[in-house]
Amino acid sequence: MPRNESKRSKTQLYATIMEVLIGYPEGVKITRLSYGVGAPVDRLRNMVEELCSFGLVRKMADDEGTYFLATPRGLEFLDTYWKMQGFLEIFGDKQPVRKQKGKY
Fold it and tell me: What is the CATH number of the domain that holds 53?
């Protein structure tokens, strides 16, 4: 990653994972997902498991291996993410706003 680019936030990585998943409606293996997202498999595996626990991704297994698919809730997350990004750009903010601990 070039020095002038900042690291992707966890939310940005989740959105990228979802973007790649919608490109494979029949499901995708973790290795191919890793190539699409641009993240190492071990790090990606943890994030995909989190997305599964949130109900945004579904894990399927068959004789050929384990596949991951976007759920309807995952598609809703992605749609909402892009809408929020659009609103934040209107206000001149490029990164999603994160709530600080203890502040409302």
Answer: 1.10.10.10
Residue 50 banded pLDDT, cuts 50, 70, 90: very high
Query: 50: domain range?
Result: 10-90
pTM of the complete model beyond 0.85? no
Phi, psi of 96 (to 5 degrees): -60, 140
Assess if residue 4 is contained within a domain: no
pLDDT band per the 50, 70, 90 thresholds, residue 8:
confident
**Count of C-beta atoms within a 10 Å radius of residue 58:** 17
Q: Which of 95, 84, 100 has its CA nearest to residue 8?
A: 95
Query: Exposed, middle or buried, 91 (CB in 10 Å: 0-12/13-18/19+)?
Result: exposed
Domain count, the chain: 1
Calpha distance 97→55 (Å, rounded): 23
C-beta neighbour count of 69 within 10 angstroms: 16
Asked whether residue 100 is domain-assigned, the answer is no
The verdict on residue 44 lying in a domain is: yes
